[in-house]
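Much of what follows relies on a compact textual record of a protein's fold. A record is reproduced here so that you can trace the correspondence yourselves:

. . .
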Amino acid sequence: MSDYFYLDVEIKLAEEPNQLSALYLKGSIERSLTKVFGEIGGQTEVDLLKFDAQRKRIILRVPKEFYVKLRAAITLIGEFQGVPCNFQVKKASPLLLSLVETHVDFAGQTVV
């Protein structure tokens, strides 16, 4: 079994921020961890593996022992760069491959 947990997270914003970047998003998550769990909680190792600015989605990796803390901290984020928002965990799994989205097109072909 994996030592990590992977989360597919969607960012929902009330309006477009000045700049939506992976660095700002990761910083927002780290600030939330520190705010909720203190300095030790803020030192949780969180890796941002993928950032899709157009879809406002990120894939995060965290050691499995910090999964619950990360999920709580993400849920409590209510503002991003002064814009009201929420972070919604779409999927979470100990297997990165299980986060891959598959769709069936109109011809019945599976598309990844």
User: Anything to note?
Assistant: Residues 22-41 form the longest helix (20 residues). Helices lie at 22-41, 67-75.
